[in-house]
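Chapter review: from sequence to fold.
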Amino acid sequence: MYRLVAMVLVPVLLVGALLETRAAQAEAVSVILDTDIGPDCDDVAALVLLHGAAARGEARILATICCISSEWGAPCLDAINTYFGRPEIPVGTLKDAGFLDGKSYNQEIARRFPHALKSGKDAPDATAVYRRVLAGQPDASVVVVAIGPLRNLGKLLQSLPDAGSPLNGRDLVAKKVQSLVCMGGNYPGAKSGGEWNFQQDVSAAKLVCETWPTPIMFSGGEIGGGICTGRRVALGGAEHHPLTMAFENYPGVGFGGDRLSWDPTACLYAVRGHANYWKVMTGGTNEVDEKGVNTWRPAPDKGHGYLAKLMPTGELEETLEDLMVAAKPGPLDFGFNTAYYVKDGMGLVTARGESSPGNGKEKAFDRNPRSLWQDDSASSWIQVQYGDGRKYAVSSYAVTGGDKPECFPKGLVLSGSNDGGTTWDAQDTRRNEAFGKGFETREFPVKKPAAYNAYRLQVSSVGQAVQLAELELVEHIENTANVVVAGLALDRKSVVVPADGRAALNVDFLPGNAANKSVAWTSSDASIAVVRRIGRNTAIVAGKREGACAVTVTTEDGRQSATCQVTVKPSSLPAPWTFCQVNEPFVPGAAAVAGGEFTITGGGEGVRSWWERVKDQFVLVGRPAAGDCRISARVTALTDNARTSDNKSIAGLMLRESTYARSKYFMVFVTPAHDLACSWRDKTDQETDFARQSIKLGKVTLPGHLRIERKGNVLNVYKSSDGNDWGAVLGMHALTFRDPCRAGLFVTSGNNATTSTARFDNVALQESP
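The token string follows.
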């Protein structure tokens, strides 16, 4: 690649070098990442992307530096670098006090993953790390990527000669840095209020934009603000991934969710240049005013540039996530709480009893060490069943007792089940444990761990009630360098599923401490059955049509494999009812009919649409209907394991113009909290606005009958306790469908990482009533 030599004197050459596509260069790009890791979780996605680029030989991470005062920023960076097998990467941190010093997911990652730095106090000063690392690199070789406020860079420019280098900061940057990639500002600029990174330290933003001596490429808020990434890391990879944990702990994202991608887009440019991803606008200067608002000036040319959209959003999202999933864990040895994501819908919690809703069973898995599950009995039990057939081998369990001595745990029995709780295998028994203080946590080993889909803890107390603040079910994660997978073992050698049905397969790695546990799942005939990986160890086999095929899991190097023989029986759905997975939810669903009862399992984002990546996703069991019609059914049950805190799991009745992901529809639905509502989409491709496109209809008691009646273009909703007395219209909306429409039963978890199941009976569809 062309190297810059006259970096300050010849702006035209600077811009030419800036526009080169780095993916074509022979050597990996040398990168220093400057990040405010903590206020937003896309910083983790950006660092994971760089580790993916490093795994592919496209990047070399020279240092990761925290630009805020949080004591957890540097340990978080250290933990992520260690997770990906690069613990030697230098970590520095801002030493100023009080600058964005709050804790967030960064504390959780630092607490859950191994690393060397105990706190930011133990990390070296950011400026010192910059100077030492830069001084050791070839001239004009380093790309600095700033994805937070620019305070560190301002300090670097103002730094004086030291033991690391005889040059002052500006001269050191001019000599060693090839370019700066800055996530900051809005372009072409002058957006009211400015952009967050520039706003946090206006003087530093001004200083960098005015005096930085190498080319700068700005990736503005408008670039990453329209791109959503992250879900593929959680949905198809190891549950103990730090990005998955960071996203789960960031408000509004959750397990398997996406986050806007301001920072990953900047890192992609740093590694690969503009390629076919963006247009690059150059030939001017980015100016920042006293309020932190930036404006692009066509002249003079100071070697500045900014990115403008070129590649379609969906393709860019795939490109970003390709690099994220390319990041491979290095040697690991730590404990992962397999119940960590239960609060986010990844498991079904049940208990013998609970004293009150405020002391409900979910409190034992909410990761709050001061909330309590309580059962007013001296002996009780609580259990969790992992979603969608996932299995984990629990090697220890940690119990946090309550706050009342008379409720402290005394006897404990941990058991596992693989048949839905019909039978239980005891894994560990404790008879006379002594919890000496309130909210004390004690951890107990399991001598012979085995993989189970459900775990139950039986608890007896010293008094008349049982309390638990937390229960952690810990799996030992061990990847040992240079240990290869010698064999794979599936938990089932054969499965029988109906068309429109599914089964889970789990794989074990032999030995369990093998370094690379990446595998691929394939079906010998995808027209008979498909297979979808839904975690590190688990895949779902979904029946498509009658026949036989084989599902095989293979190691990344292709040397080891294991096969399951799959037999698909005919669907139990009566004609003309058909099964449809609208917009293909990530976790395949299922439907079956027995004795007139429909059991439907569905995943997906929900029935909503509000950016390119979020479109309707659900399971619909329906049939054609034309003209005036009436569909009714009794909803008898809905599982509550999918984000019940915001009731995204729903089930009910729907009339829909087509199975297109943004089709017009009208539906009535119930939530796990037994809230009843109806909603609609008036126009194809319309975004969802529930404030204007829904009606709350109160509560419904399950089992409960629901009905939608269509007369002309008017749709009416009714409910009934007995299926005979329907009472008055609960909700009404006018909507015209193109006939024939689809009328049917639907289920969605509202969570792309898992599914919910609902049961219906008394299902009836009458045309021209």
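Two observations follow directly from the output. The longest helix spans residues 42-55. The chain is about 15% helix and 40% strand.
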